[in-house]
Amino acid sequence: MDLVKRNNIKVSGKGNKAMMFAHGFGCDQNMWRYVTPAFVNDYKIVLFDHVGSGHSDLSSYSSSRYNHLQAYANDILEVCYSLNLEDVIFVGHSVSSMIGTLAAIKDPKMFEKIIMIGPSPRYMNDIDYVGGFSKEDIDGLLDSMDSNYLGWSGAMAPVIMGNSETPQLGQELANSFCASDPEISKNFARVTFTSDNRADLHKLKTPSLILQCSDDVIAPIEVGHYLAKNLMNNKLVIMSATGHCPNLSAPEETILHIKEYLSSGR
Amino acid sequence: MTFANWTGQKKTEIINLKRFQDLITIGGKIFYETHHAPLIKMQGFVNELYYELTVKGGGNVPVLLNSKQIRDDKGNVLGYKSTFFNITDRKKYEQELLLAKKKAEQAVVAKTEFLSTISHEIRTPLNAIIGLTNILHEQDKNPDNREYLNILKFSSNNLLGLINDILDLSKIEAGKVVLEEKDFDLRQLLHSIAGTFKLKTEKKGVKILVEPDKNLPVAFFGDDLKLGQVFTNLVGNAVKFTEDGSITIKAEVNDKVDKTYQIRFSVKDTGIGIPSNKLESIFEEFTQASSQISIKYGGTGLGQAISQRILELYGGKLMVKSELNKGSEFYFTINLPKGNKDKIIVSPKSIEQERKLSGSKILLCEDNPVNVIVVSKFLKDWDIDFDVAVNGQEGLAKIQEQYYDLILMDIKMPVMDGYETTRAIRELQGDRYSKLPIIAMTASSDLSATPKIENVGMNGFIGKPFDPKDFYNKLVKYLPLNFLSDTSIEALVKDSAEETKTKKAVSLERMLEIAEGDDIFYKGIINESIKSFIEIQDELREAFQNEDLQKAKDIEHKSKMVLDILKAENLASLIKKAICALELKDKKSFASEKYLVPLEKEIEAIVSELKSHN
Questions:
Q1: Pairing of β A111-117 and β A234-238
Q2: CATH of domain B92-173
Q3: Which of B65, B75, B374, B437 is deepest in the core (most CB within 10 A)?
Q4: Options A23, A93, A244, A257, the catalytic residue
Q5: How many folded domains does chain A comprise?
Q6: pLDDT, tens only, B497-508
Q7: Is A216 a catalytic site residue?
Q8: Which ipTM was obtained for this model?
Q9: What is the CA radius of gyration of chain B?
Q10: CA B371 remoteness from chain centre
């Protein structure tokens, strides 16, 4: 199988040590564009799209195969093997934090450190657990995706735009990083927002950094504290950035925390 | 102010106090965080995003949002300028449309399922009609009756064709049809299609020509069955509408990129032609050029529509040029990659000698008595020995008692169905069970059953009602290679050697009956039998070593009586197989010892059994 094509793998950077960046639900590898330049000189940068997102090979997607986060984790290991990577520093945004966790549980030797940005082991509230969403919220979300083709996909179709508005992007990229097949998008949302990886946390032996935003609807602050309590060998940083995408809204702060963690030797 | 009205709040409650994210539904919030926010950060604007504003006191207002970053001279983001459109009306229409779409989709699914079920129901009795008509046709010599039977045969076959067409179309429409590609010989495909119409065209005095391009390679990679279906339809129509002149099947190479050939296929006739105002409509379902056509020529008008859909799978389009009373040309252009000629699966040549099948033993697992009658009739005609089991459980038991060369397995049976039985057979220990050819017999035309047939380990399937020729070819395909195989011979010998305790090589019951308690006669007859077996053994050895077929047949005939009385079934079977092998031999491959050694072993077993009673 052509993994490069399947996962739209892009390798760059001048260093030998591999840093792998995994995007979360909703976007693709482009969401790392403000972060990766800070590491290009010292690391080998590995970017990819999850199957079903971005410019991955959509024909490799099937809802039965990707019905659990483990399938995405297995893909990540396959990518690592095919590139002969070792001691990888894994940076996962949102749901990819847990995908990376599952990969590192399966093959602990592959990863040296895991950096989680806006992670959550469970999005739904439970007894003695605050995930941020009620079951009704999640059901409502999936229902709305069912009928709401405008919001989730239709409006996401690539549009032509003038360069003047966004000098940093080429025309062809407009909207495309969030465009996806509505069915795939819905499945990925279902798999993501109904996942519960709390029982896996103690199995992770790899050291981790948790980057928790101050005001994040998707992963509220309680979730960050829960992770810090249940993961061994972790470091929790509460960022001043708000929202769910500090890698886009506050790239400098994100870079700073990652660099600090990597140089601390923990 | 308007915005405040929509959301049922006071202006003062919103301005400078609420962010956009605070005013939308949960789904919207997730969308905002995972799509909207990244997007606007990366491209500076978003257009026509759909949100639902929550109304204070309950309810939602659907809106479309355009939003744009506002930057200062240095490019720093100062804020966002957003425009909302209230789309309550549009949303209503949209919901109606969605509802209608869902209903329509459900209706299509329901239609397909209905067709699949009803077709099974129609095909089962039709199977009986066609099968029994075929039997009567062969037996009845009365010319009047034969004429009626011809009509019955023609009509029932037409009905079957119609049902198959409707099913094909509904399957294609339901998106259930996919290309099953493999390496195949294109020239041979075209010639064999022409061949199937030879009888009809010769009768009419119409010439049928095949003209493949010289530059065509032997092998292509594609779905030969579906392409064959298209050609069969096109040539069939051409034959139907052409009274004299010729029909030409052409394949021309238009272009070649790497290993992919762009080929223009055409079927041209010198028939009645199509009026120019009807040219478009002939591709529509259930439409023929005129209603007179269907009266005069028959047909459903589905053929072209099916061909068109199949070609769409190949990215091609069926086109037509025609002139009234001069003829028509149907043509299409598709891309086919070059195939590997070594990988072409050569279908077994049609075998003239029925002897090839005779001597084999088949188990028919079938609960429907009419089907049993129909299948039995053909098996008897082809001199195939067979047993019948009325359900899977009985079949499974029989298989372990006796050696069979092939199983014909009905799918829907009481107690234990065909799938379950096959699975159970494959789980039995031993080569003879894992390699035993099992052919499914099914009236269901549901394509989704095919993978299941393979999954449980069946080798192939025959649709009911079946065409006798097709049935014969299927048997030829799975039988002759197998029933002379070493496994089958070994299995027979093994039976006699290992199972002597439970199953004797011979049975003396009939002997005892014949002797009627006369002990001296009984002993005498056993003695005679021993002698004759030893004689048979010597004679067989001589006949097979000299490859003397006639002599071997004579011995078989001569020994039939004693083998019958003693129920020496294994020996009879071994002799039959050896004779078959000799008859089919090409000299190199007939190894007399291969057959003689097990034969003699079996005879020894019989003799020692007889001696123990002497």
A1: unpaired
A2: 1.10.287.130
A3: B374
A4: A244
A5: 1
A6: 454 444 567 777
A7: yes
A8: 0.86
A9: 36
A10: 19
